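User: quick one, fold this
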Amino acid sequence: MNELASILSETDLSFIVQVLMPGYREKARMMKTLAEDEEMLEGVLKDENLFKFLMENPDSIVKVSPQLFFTVVLLKVMNDLEGQSYTVEQEERIKVFIFDSNNVVKFLKEEKILFYLIDLLCSFVKINSCTVMLRIKRGVWRRFKFSDFNIDSLLKYSEMIDEESRFLSYKRIADICLFMTGVFPAYLSTGQAHRVFSRSDILSSSRKSKDELRSYGRHFYRAAAQHKDAYIHQLHQVLSSLSEKFDLAEKPLTFMSQHYLGLLKENLFRQ
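Assistant:
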């Protein structure tokens, strides 16, 4: 099975052929080949010309799926980190060089980790609010509204439901932590979040410190990994790895944010 093709749409495949092979007469045939040949598809997704087109033509982002966009960008991260020996960490106003790029690349090359990070990034392109009816006691129900980008409301919601139903809440809390520390580290506890985000639920998450979010992330990835649903969804190993190596998972997202997204991230994640 071509796993890469399974997360892309026909529109994505058409876009790839159009950008990399303009004027190619047998477009449908090439799309079919890409859908069936994972090695060839990976090769074109790593093509520098495809990456440059997406970066230099911001309007093209709305023409492709978030899955295609983030797959291309994370593969670019992997390729660029292979070419250097260190990553950079910002400690207040000081840049610290950490010689761990080999470990970051090795971690990112784990196929299930790569696909998880792609899915995680796509899940933050649109933020959702949910309203559920919760049983308080016999005959008494309460309407509870929460956002899937508000750690505090997710914590409150998870406390109101049975343990057997908490898997998605645990996983989402951890995902928020990784997303914020990886993609928007500069906005944490600085009062700058309002420049990007207007929604109160996002601002709520951004008010926590980076260390707080890292601690929450490790804890809730571990809690999610230990939940029975993690085994049902075959996510136990991935979630365990994210808990144990949260800092490594954070690095490619930060590299992506600093080097490639620029102002694009404010448009990608505004909703």
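User: anything notable?
Assistant: DSSP finds 16 helices and four strands in the chain.
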